[in-house]
Amino acid sequence: MYRFYINGIKNEYHFAELCRLFMDDHQFEVIPFNSPGINSSLLGENSYLFNSSGSQGREEIKRKLYWVLSDITGAEMPWGTLTGVRPLKLAFQIALSLSSGDETTDQKIGKTRAEMKDMYLISDSKLDLLMDILRYQLDNVPAPDTCEDSLYVGIPFCPTRCSYCSFASNIGTAGEIETYLDNLIREIEYTGSKYKQAGRKLESVYIGGGTPTTLNPEQLERLITSVYHNFRIEPGSIEFTVEAGRPDTITQEKMDVIKSLGIDRISINPQSMKKRTMELIGRSHGPEQIREAFKIAEKTGFKTINSDLIAGLPEETAEDFTRSLQEIIELGASNITIHTLSVKHGSRLKQQDPEYFREKGRLVTSMLEKGSRMLYDSGYLPYYIYRQKHQTGGHENVGWCKPGTHSIYNIRIMEEKQTIIALGAGAIGKIYFPERDGLERVANVSNFRIYTERFEEILKRKDQYFTGTHDSDKK
After folding, report:
1. How is the chain split into domains, by residue range?
2. pLDDT single digits (tens) 202-219
3. Which residues are registered as beta bridge partners of 49?
4. Prior bond of 210 cis (ω within 30°)
5. What predicted TM-score, i.e. pTM, was given to this entire model?
6. What is the pLDDT of residues 245-293, one digit of tens each?
7. Residues 6 or more apart in contact with residue 106 via CB below 8 angstroms
8. CA 426/CA 279 separation, integer angstroms
9. Backbone φ and ψ of 281, nearest 5°
10. Is Membrane among this UniProt entry's keywords (predicted)?
11. Nearest-CA neighbor of 146 among 99, 198, 224?
């Protein structure tokens, strides 16, 4: 057991999160105290003292803690001392604070890079990536309009549950899915009526999950038509994405319905093109169904197709990963999101191998380095980024796009400068308050059966988007 005594702090959270990048919880303890001048020789074996004078700030203490952890374990983290999930948001804040108003983009990026290197000990490769994303957004993405919001609609059903997944996705019967959809449309109608009274407008809509294409063609049409009607959207007037997701749920009839309703953006998410991997993670389809899904999407005429791949899946080599990526590029995905496997507490993989996310770090680093070179060489640019806890090797998730095909919804949800209205089981919305640059959450229950049982209560929660009252989230 390593003990890290930190003087002058009230909350150990940020320091414990940094320790968790290097060690399991049972291997360390962070101990706050307030006794300036304590002698470190009195602390005992495997004990370390930080900020003995009480004069150091949080980031300085974290840097010193980082080097001690690195010395103990022999490891270094690619994101240095950063433990938050939105590094780009931090980069924007730093760029704004350092800007004098008349710099070029290159000058802004240069200042931001230097500051983040010194402050957070981020590796050069991650700084290169982050600054490329910052550049893309500075050059291509307008600042959010304070009168605009985005809408998320959740379909929590999947054909099977993947081994790495802890999301609130469920396998429902035909009757349960129909009942859920009836209630979801009531939620859309109720929220839409309130939205009309508020006099606001949507910038983007995202139907996600789960797997929205577990719905049949008639159900998809009901759902999408309800969104258009109740939020007064003209087809084709705003960004509208349907996460088709699992290839084993994609049919020509479903794609025809989606396209006929004016939607040009879908997702087809293989995660891997290796048949053995699909079996290991619990997928009920093979690579041929993925190829067929792309053929259907191309035939139907969708302009933008996103595909997700995961680096670090069980038993995969770097060559397996790059072969999957090369095929997705050749199949014509204009957006490709590269996820680093996050071994979540509720997943089967976490139960089977608690140390997986640390053991595979070097392999995943190789996958990401090779994948990035392939994407740059193929004309893709990184445009958004986020991180999760327990990501293999301490890495990140990155969205890549052919220039001009980026998802505004993905950008807005990560920059946290816009209200995201979220409907359906498992959906978590956020209300943005520009006057204080703050957010408040509005969460629906995750289980679709509980969503059905408590539907009237859930319906009333939607008032929070329009009254600013969030008592249910503070209990």
Report:
1. 2-73, 87-128, 148-423
2. 999 999 988 999 999 999
3. 5
4. yes
5. 0.92
6. 889 899 999 999 999 999 999 999 999 999 999 998 888 788 999 999 9
7. none
8. 26
9. -90, 0
10. no
11. 198
